[in-house]
Amino acid sequence: MIGLRYPLLLLLLLPGLWLAWRAAYRWGIPSAHPTPRFARLAARGIPMLLVALLVVAAAGPELRRTVKGRAPVVDFAMVLDGSSSMRTLDDGKESRWDAARRLLRTFILRRPDDRFALVLFSAHPVTLSPLSSDHARLWGTLNRLKLEGRDDGTAIGSALMTAVRRLADSPARSRVILLLTDGAQNRGRVLPAEAAQEARSTGIRIHTVLLGKPGAEGLYPLEGGGQAWLKVDTDPETLRQIAQATGGEALAADDPEGLARSLASIDRLEKTTLPVDPPTEGEALGRWVLLAAGLLALPLVLDLGRKRGKARPAWMI
Fold it and tell me: Among residues 241, 244, 212, which one has the least CA distance to residue 229?
């Protein structure tokens, strides 16, 4: 099956053909209108064919073949805590915020066939990406994310409910919410237990990852420079109940290495092999189209060199 990677570029075909017709090529500078039928057709047809080949090459033609097989398919909603406490440095070098984003990018990379949604929350949840298999765009979103100081707080229940809605219409048999937070709920009208019950009723599992060690202090960077010791209120028991109610796992990560181990554990848990629509692989054909265009343009180039500097014949004007 022949397909196009950028089919919208074919819209350039009509204006390109019109311009090629208006700028008919003049073979050999004849002093009068060419009488042979082939010469008349070549004067108009070759430039039009050349333009058509170039537009088709730009549209990315490819030969698509069906690849038989099965792929692991899971739909994830990643729920990331964006409260100010995520600036805390557990190892003295990397903040919880930077470590969480870095490990989420790695997690996405390890699961090329899965789809991901991204929800950021502090006092209120915000959906940064609906379910998407465009992993490059998700990477870019995670890279550009910044912690904002305004509207601070930790609304875990509201964030989980938003993630449930993102997965509610998913046709995947395995749907999973991955919650990364370092605090306890102190904002929002939805309780974490209510969100967990909603997730359970729709068949969604919730895995929770608690960042930072409960009851311990961490270094917090100050606005004017320097650092101070900060103790963040945590609620590991609530996170454990959320995960347990939905058949998920409650994991703790008090350092970047612990976070890496937690995400690796979830990666091992969520390996569901399901039949999917037959995927395809494409073999690019653009180089062959460009080769045909080059061969077609070669006699034009040679003829242009031969008649360089000569006047345009009257029949072409």
Answer: 212
pTM above 0.90, yes or no: no
CA distance 114 to 51: 40
Which CATH code for domain 71-274?
3.40.50.410
| C-alpha distance from residue 15 to each of 53, 171, 193, 317 (Å) | 14, 42, 60, 21
Give the tens place of pLDDT for each residue, 153-183: 899 999 999 999 999 888 877 889 999 998 8
Q: Residue 60, by phi and psi: left (phi above 0), alpha (psi -120 to 50) or beta?
A: left
Question: Beta partners for 80?
Answer: 120, 180
CB 43 within 8 A of CB 28: no
Q: Tally the C-alpha atoms within 13 A of residue 306's C-alpha that lie toward its C-beta.
A: 11
The domain ranges of the chain are 2-66+279-316, 71-274
Q: Are residues 153 and 187 in contact, defined by beta-carbon separation less than 8 angstroms?
A: yes
